[in-house]
């Protein structure tokens, strides 16, 4: 494709336009470049140029046009297709989160296989000629369960997450000692394609504002990745957040979406980073979805216009998201804005590359903008993914949950006078059943209730195996019940995803308080942590063994 680069602007500044410079200045510049090349021990370098407000890649002014993709939200067989479509959209770079809790499911137990094979993903980006901006957290937000922090951190209930709390730092350090040595060979300086690494994420939005914590992370990242790699932070444009989220030694970048005056927004970055490249690390192409609300929608024209404004300034940009994907299994997060708001399974994000992997009108609008600033790769955009009509799938009932507790909870229940949280019984995700007996006859309706913020997040109530209704976090907190002494009361508690953003990130699950009958706490509970996923696997005996689907294509 023939592309006009007439409006090509990169890192505007005196050094950027040699034609306008005096010959002496040009000679000086060349001399400085030669000297800096000689001084540099490695031919591959990626640095900040504080004079020309640029990045320098191998000593040459550079700015990136990047897009976010999360390997954990894309099935591994689709990685190549999505990355290729990003490349063909004109992106030079992809920005990638590493969700800690996806790799260290239990303390000291690591998984980097299959869809968790981060290095295979990095190799694929390199093969397709893409650079990588890595965001290894340890906290990532990302609308991911608990912002990427492992739920097992809450086994110590008073832990202060994202702070200098020694218990938190010990867990972080042992994780970083596993993760970062895998990353180091992929750094640009070492022959790989990772040009920069983000430390924490939007830390300024967290109430703790603990510089000791950021300083500790800086030390660990430096110790494990070396002194050359470019480390940076990302925060919103709010002055308060830039104050708490930035640190000497970490290059400060910002994030904002379309629809505002880009020059004014970048002034926020200039207040904390007076020189160096302008960077928007999260330019929002769309937005996340909450259960019960409409699908997010951001107009393609708006996104394209804002992108053009950013590129016109010579800034570097990462589009968040370029391809959103799917929150598989229990990995969706939640927000807390006046009330608990769980994130949907889909993470389509109204992104340029849809959840199904299809190029959208927004993708082509973005590609058109990019083509005004740099050449697009030669060749066609790969097509939308093929779709199949599977027809209706009839779901058959195999068993009543209450009849198969021995299968779902082979180790048997835990006895406790009063309810225990998921974390107290070391169940990270999914469902826990709480069972007790009515202490007396209740001929007239009595009130079953739980205090505010104690049902996390949903409790399905059964009495004598009959469904009574649902208690819900920030929703209905009482039910009227009748029954006889000794009748079994069951409450099936569902974890709908831990909060990923804000002050309430220590989001305990299950029954966090007492359940009362006419204000008297019920006691003598049996607590069944349910292993729903393992129970569905082929080795499972009994009624839950999956049957072959009739008509499954061979
Ligand atoms: C954006 O703000 C700058 C500085 O305040 C101003 O000079 C410029 O005209 C504004 N641009 C638009 C499109 O409003
Ligand atoms: C956090 O949750 C508590 C209840 O557990 C609530 O009182 C408080 O307002 C929440 N804080 C924020 C910042 O949402
Ligand atoms: C539950 O009730 C018992 C008895 O009143 C009380 O000792 C206990 O602290 C309560 N638990 C919670 C979490 O409020």
From TrEMBL:
Domain Glycoside hydrolase 35 catalytic positions: 55-372
GO biological process, one term: carbohydrate metabolic process
Keywords: Glycoprotein, Glycosidase, Hydrolase, Signal
Signal peptide: 1-39
Keyword Metal-binding: no
UniProt cross-references to InterPro entries, sorted A to Z: B-gal_1-like (IPR026283), BetaGal1-like_ABD1 (IPR048912), GH (IPR017853), Gly_Hdrlase_35_cat (IPR031330), Glycoside_Hdrlase_35 (IPR001944)
Transmembrane segment boundaries: none
Ranges of residues in domain Beta-galactosidase 1-like first all-beta: 419-530
Keyword Aminoacyl-tRNA synthetase in record: no
A molecular-function term among this protein's GO annotations: beta-galactosidase activity
Gene3D superfamilies in UniProt: Galactose-binding domain-like, Glycosidases
Catalytic residue list: 202 (proton donor), 282 (nucleophile)
Similarity comment: Belongs to the glycosyl hydrolase 35 family.
Record protein name field: Beta-galactosidase-1-like protein isoform X3
The organism of origin for this protein: Lepidothrix coronata
Name of the gene this protein is made from: GLB1L
């Amino acid at each position: 494709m023939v592309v006009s680069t007439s409006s090509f602007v990169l890192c505007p500044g005196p050094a950027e336009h040699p034609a306008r410079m005096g010959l002496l200045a040009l000679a000086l510049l060349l001399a400085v470049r030669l000297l800096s090349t000689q001084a540099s021990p490695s031919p591959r370098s990626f640095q900040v140029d504080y004079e020309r407000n640029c990045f320098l890649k191998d000593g040459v002014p550079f700015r990136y046009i990047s897009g976010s993709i999360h390997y954990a939200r894309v099935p591994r067989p689709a990685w190549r297709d999505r990355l290729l479509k990003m490349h063909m959209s004109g992106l030079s770079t992809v920005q990638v989160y590493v969700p800690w809790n996806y790799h260290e499911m239990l303390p000291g137990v690591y998984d980097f296989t299959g869809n968790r094979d981060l290095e295979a993903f990095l190799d694929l980006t390199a093969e397709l000629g893409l650079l990588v901006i890595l965001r290894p957290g340890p906290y990532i937000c990302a609308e991911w369960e608990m912002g990427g922090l492992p739920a097992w951190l809450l086994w110590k209930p008073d832990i202060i997450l994202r702070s200098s709390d020694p218990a938190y730092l010990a867990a972080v350090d042992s994780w970083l000692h596993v993760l970062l040595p895998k990353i180091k060979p992929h750094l640009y300086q070492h022959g790989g394609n990772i040009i920069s690494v983000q430390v924490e994420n939007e830390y300024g939005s967290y109430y703790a504002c603990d510089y000791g914590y950021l300083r500790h992370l800086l030390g660990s990242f430096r110790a494990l990745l070396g002194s050359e790699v470019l480390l940076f932070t990302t925060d919103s444009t709010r002055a308060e957040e830039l104050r708490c989220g930035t640190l000497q030694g970490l290059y400060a970048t910002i994030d904002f979406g379309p629809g505002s005056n880009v020059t004014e927004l970048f002034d926020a970055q200039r207040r904390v980073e007076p020189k160096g490249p302008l960077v928007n690390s999260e330019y929002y192409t769309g937005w996340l979805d909450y259960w019960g609300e409409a699908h997010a929608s951001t107009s393609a024209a708006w996104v394209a216009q804002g992108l053009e404004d950013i590129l016109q300034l010579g800034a570097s940009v990462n589009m968040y998201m370029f391809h959103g994907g799917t929150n598989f299994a229990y990995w969706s997060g939640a927000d807390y804005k006046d009330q608990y708001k769980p994130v949907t399974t889909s993470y389509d994000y109204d992104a340029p590359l849809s959840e199904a992997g299809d190029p959208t009108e927004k993708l082509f609008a973005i590609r058109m903008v990019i083509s005004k600033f740099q050449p697009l790769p030669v060749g066609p955009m790969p097509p939308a993914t093929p779709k199949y009509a599977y027809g209706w799938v009839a779901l058959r009932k195999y068993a009543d949950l209450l009849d198969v507790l021995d299968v779902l909870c082979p180790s048997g229940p835990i006895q406790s006078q009063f309810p225990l949280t998921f974390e107290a019984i070391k169940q990270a995700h999914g469902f826990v059943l709480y069972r007790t007996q009515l202490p007396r006859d209740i001929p007239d309706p009595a009130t079953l209730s739980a205090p505010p913020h104690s049902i996390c997040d949903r409790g399905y109530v059964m009495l004598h195996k009959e469904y009574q209704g649902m208690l819900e976090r920030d929703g209905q907190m009482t039910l009227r019940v009748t029954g006889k002494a000794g009748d079994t009361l069951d409450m099936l508690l569902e974890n709908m995803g831990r909060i990923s953003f804000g002050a309430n990130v220590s989001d305990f699950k299950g029954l966090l308080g007492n359940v009362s009958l006419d204000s008297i706490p019920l006691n003598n509970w049996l607590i069944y942590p349910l292993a729903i996923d393992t129970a569905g696997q082929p080795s499972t005996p009994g009624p839950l063994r999956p049957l072959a689907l009739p008509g499954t294509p061979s």
